[in-house]
Every structure is written in structure tokens, then in C-alpha cells.
Predict the 3D structure of the following.
Amino acid sequence: MPGMALRTWAEEFAGGTVATAMARINARHPWSHNDHFHSWILANLPARRRGALDVGCGRGGLLAALSPRFTAVHGTDRDGAMRGQAATRCAGLSNVIIHNGTWIDGPVDLVTMVAVLHHLDIADALERVRSILEPGGRFLAVGLAPHQAVVTDRNRYP
């Protein structure tokens, strides 16, 4: 199946019955690639836990998981529907604040990005992380690589 996406194959194979079956299974047992990595993030938190920022917070699952572990948890997402779902999910969590696609000024002890960095200007995003992250803080990112070469200026980030 080289060059053919699994989704396309599933839609075409056996008159689409594979795609239909996969949709039914996913409806009963939804799985989120992003949520899968939350346990890794929780296992690698910094020692100091005053503030955290989740860039691209989506539906707020990571915000809710970070809430009992940090004094203040901030989430940001460009998508209004995602922010709405995060706000609903975190409505009872008084230390969670959701921002309208903007970064906070910091300082924070943790910055997370789960499948977000490839949507941003990488150099700018890393500079922003560096500017708000407290010494000893952590930047935990799960990334997706683009299908192209990425060239960075090694002298810019010593």
C-alpha cells in the first residue's frame, strides 16, 4: 500500500465497509493521539509547580490533569470551539484559566505543546517558551514532523 493513505484504502476497500466498521469502533471507543501523551507529560513535571501553560490546549484534558498539580494552569488555543470545550471541561477548576489564542507573559514552570509546534513558526515559538519559562522549568512537547526539511540557525539557540 505504498503511497496510499490508510483512510483512502479503508474508504475504497470492500465498498467502504472497512471505513464504516472503523467509524463504529471509534464512536464506541474514541482514542485521541494527543491525550495518549498526557501520562508522559505528568511523569515529567518540574519540581516547582506554580504556573503551567498548555499551548494548543484543545478540549482541556491536559489542563484538567495539571490542575491538581499546579497553583495556576493556563491554556490557550486559536480554535474557539476547542476553547469552549476546554472551558466546559474545566468549569469547576478554579485555578484553570483559558486564553483566547494568546500566550501569557509568564513566568511559568511548565510549558506544554502536544501536536502543536508544527502549526507555529518554530523559531518564534521556542523563543517565546524561553522568555516565559522559569529557570529550572520544563518545556515538554510532543511533535509531528513536517514532510520537508527544516533548517534552523544553530547560532540562534546556544
